Automatic annotation (TrEMBL):
Domain of life where this protein originates: Eukaryota
Organism classification: Eukaryota, Sar, Alveolata, Ciliophora, Intramacronucleata
Protein name: Uncharacterized protein
Database matches in InterPro entries: IQ_motif_EF-hand-BS, P-loop_NTPase
Pfam families the record matches: IQ (PF00612)
Gene3D superfamilies xref list: 1.20.5.190
Organism from which the protein derives: Strombidinopsis acuminata
Amino acid sequence: RAALLVMKRDDAACLIQHNWKTWQWNRRSAKLLNSVLRVQRVWLGAVQRKWLKECHAAATQIQKYARGLLVRVTMDKSGRALIRQHQGELNALIEKKPEMSESMYIARTAVVAGKAR
């Protein structure tokens, strides 16, 4: 009888110890998961902020050149002739668009826009 009692207590101790270790493991796992998710959120936020900053800088650059072109066009006669020439090139490109692939059209449009600078 005493051996049976010792065995029951031993089994109970094993079960308690197992449950305790499981609880601690789950708690550590949850803490690790939360930490990893926080690091990922912070990293993704930093990447997005950097991308947004680059986009704003690019937009500012485009606006700078567009405004400069507008000033040149409105101020002098040669500027007005220049804008008519570039507009003619763009119109010709738009007419040829159905014959071109999408990437070729984008590339040609970029070239014409680059010339306008």
